[in-house]
Amino acid sequence: MGGGLCAAAACPGLTLSQTSAVLYIDESKLPPEIHQHFETEGIQVTFSPYNAITTCIESAVNELSPSDKIWISEKSSIALTSLVPENMLLTDISPVSLMKTIKNATEVDGMINAHIRDASALCRYFAWLEKEVALGNKVTEISGATKLKQFRSELDEFVGLSFETISSVGPNAAIIHYSPDPTTDRPITDQHIYLCDSGAQFQDGTTDVTRTIHLGTPTDFEKESFTRVFKGAFAIRSCIFPNKLKGNYLDTLARKPLWNIGLDYLHGTSHGIGS
């Protein structure tokens, strides 16, 4: 295209042209850190009242030639999308999103280093937890998560948690995205399965690791269920599949060992990790 405008109108709104970036938001609500961040990154941003994005799009429609395009996010409201004539409207996925789907070499190295560093904290935590439970010392979902955060905070490049730690015992471990609170906090013992889904933000990468352990003797049903989940995960890991095949085509491989005995899990099979 010879020229055009790109508009993203989630809240706040944003318009980009070949020469400018305008953020539509109540500037009085922005903390000083926002301005400092833009300045540090060398990003020139103009601030404008939120409702002014409508005027901007209307002006672009009038000033651009019919062969130019106005690229509007597919998540924008119909109120904004309808301002653009159909022949000028473009709603394809952003090339930025496509570029973000594949990590560059620096991001790959950062992810590897972050996970190696993060693994040391997890190993320390599980070793500490095994010892504490064996000694009969009380550790709960909350206090366990707090201890894990402490181990992570001692690592180089640590920024914070990537999400609230899902520290869950027994029946709580079956609750998707469970987060312990004082009303549900269960002790971690050698009698029940313990699931720990956690991660951290480092300067060079992001982690998200789930581990399911038993500090005592699991039941035969727990052993079989765990083994069948592993078989499903290994089936995907060892599968050779065509390039660009969508993940839902592989999902059956993960679930089949469970389906064979009438079981399933009410959760997605996998997801990526950002940077």
TrEMBL record:
<dbReference type="GO" id="GO:0016787">
    <property type="term" value="F:hydrolase activity"/>
</dbReference>
<keyword id="KW-0378">Hydrolase</keyword>
<dbReference type="InterPro" id="IPR050422">
    <property type="entry name" value="X-Pro_aminopeptidase_P"/>
</dbReference>
<keyword id="KW-0479">Metal-binding</keyword>
<dbReference type="Pfam" id="PF00557">
    <property type="entry name" value="Peptidase_M24"/>
</dbReference>
<dbReference type="InterPro" id="IPR029149">
    <property type="entry name" value="Creatin/AminoP/Spt16_N"/>
</dbReference>
<comment type="similarity">
    <text>Belongs to the peptidase M24B family.</text>
</comment>
<dbReference type="InterPro" id="IPR036005">
    <property type="entry name" value="Creatinase/aminopeptidase-like"/>
</dbReference>
<dbReference type="GO" id="GO:0046872">
    <property type="term" value="F:metal ion binding"/>
</dbReference>
<dbReference type="GO" id="GO:0005737">
    <property type="term" value="C:cytoplasm"/>
</dbReference>
<dbReference type="Pfam" id="PF16189">
    <property type="entry name" value="Creatinase_N_2"/>
</dbReference>
<dbReference type="InterPro" id="IPR000994">
    <property type="entry name" value="Pept_M24"/>
</dbReference>
<keyword id="KW-0464">Manganese</keyword>
<feature type="domain" description="Peptidase M24">
    <location>
        <begin position="110"/>
        <end position="274"/>
    </location>
</feature>
<protein>
    <recommendedName>
        <fullName>Peptidase M24 domain-containing protein</fullName>
    </recommendedName>
</protein>
